[in-house]
Specification:
Layout lengths: L7 E5 L5 H10 L14 H9 L5 E7 L2 E8 L5 E5 L6 H14 L14 H9 L17
Antiparallel strand pairs: 1-2, 2-3, 3-4
Length: about 140
């Protein structure tokens, strides 16, 4: 599919985006989830968005379509999620470059599930390098 990458822009998240962001979360591949195991209710998701959990949070627009979201956490971690039909390396590259230009920092971080080899490769190709491996133990898992 051919996209007009020049029309990509970032729009700050507002109340008008609640449904879109919920649909985007619902569409996410479970392999990419590291923050939750089950889908939250729409009410708890709205409460989460309203709490302003990120330093910056944008809906990604291409032409007039909402195609994904990208955020910058208070720890300078990037979270990028594209709708399945727009999950394209060229789009993701353009979005990341635009995002970094709009939010210049000396360093950025990305948390990726170790099972998400596609995303690991994507960020390595952008120049990101492995910093650490994080382990967790959940009660009752042993």
């Amino acid at each position: 599919m051919k996209y007009n990458l020049k029309t990509i822009r970032l729009k700050q998240v507002s109340k008008l985006d609640y449904d879109f962001l919920y649909d985007l979360l619902e569409e996410r591949n479970p392999i990419s989830n590291i923050s939750h195991k089950k889908m939250p209710s729409i009410q708890s998701h709205i409460k989460f968005i309203s709490s302003k959990p990120y330093k910056k949070w944008y809906v990604i627009k291409m032409s007039n379509n909402s195609i994904g979201s990208i955020y910058l956490s208070y720890q300078n971690e990037i979270g990028l999620f594209l709708k399945k039909e727009y999950d394209d390396v060229k789009i993701a590259n353009s979005v990341i470059k635009l995002f970094m230009k709009k939010n210049p920092l000396n360093q950025y971080f990305v948390n990726i599930s170790p099972r998400n080899t596609k995303l690991i490769k994507f960020y390595k190709n952008l120049g990101f390098s492995l910093l650490q491996k994080t382990f967790k133990l959940e009660k009752g898992s042993k």
